[in-house]
Amino acid sequence: MPAALMPADDRVTSILLWIIDDFLELNGRHKALRAGYGMGELGADSFDMVELQARIEEELHILIETEISVDVTFDQLLKLVRQAIDAQPGRLAPRH
Fold first, then answer.
1. pLDDT given at position 43
2. Domain 11-87 sits in which CATH superfamily?
3. Which phi and psi angles does 33 have, rounded to 5°?
4. Residue ranges per structural domain of the chain
5. Measured at the alpha carbon of residue 70, what is the angle toward residues 39 and 72, in degrees to the nearest 5?
6. Could you tell me if 44 and 24 are in contact, meaning their C-beta atoms sit under 8 angstroms apart?
7. Where are the alpha helices (DSSP H) in 3-73?
8. From 20, 32, 47, 79, which residue has the greatest number of CB atoms within 10 Å?
9. What are phi and psi of 36, to 5 degrees?
10. Which InterPro entries does this entry report, sorted A to Z (predicted)?
11. Rounded distance between C-alpha atoms, residue 17 and residue 25, angstroms
C-alpha cells in the first residue's frame, strides 16, 4: 500500500473524502486515508458500494459509467470521479 497521503488541497478530493467519511461513518478518520486503501478495508461491502456510488453521483451531479466494486482503491475511485466530471463539463468547478 502506498505510504503517501492523498492530497486534500483540491476540491474534488476534499468532497470525495467527506462523502466517504460521512457515508462509512469514519468519524474523521478519512484524514489518514491513503491512496491505496480499498473501500473494503474501510468497512464497505458490496451493498454499501452501490449506495456510495449513488451518493457520490448525487452529491457531485455526475454519472460514473462503471459499477464501483468493494475492491476499488481511493485513488482509483478518485480517478473515476474525475473522469465523470471531465465528461460532464460545467458540473463542478475545475480542479487545480
1. 87
2. ACP-like (1.10.1200.10)
3. -65, 130
4. 11-87
5. 70
6. yes
7. 11-23, 46-60
8. 20
9. -90, 5
10. ACP-like_sf
11. 12
d(CA 60, CA 84): 10
Q: What is the pLDDT of residues 57-85, one digit of tens each?
A: 999 999 999 999 999 999 999 999 999 99
Query: What are 24-28's contacts with CB under 8 Å, separation 24+?
Result: 24/48, 24/52
Q: What is the pTM of this model?
A: 0.77
Please report the DSSP string for 30-41 in residue order.
Answer: GGG-BTT-BGGG
16 touches 73 (CB < 8 A): no
Contact by Cβ (8 Å): 67, 80? no
Residue 2: the pLDDT is 38
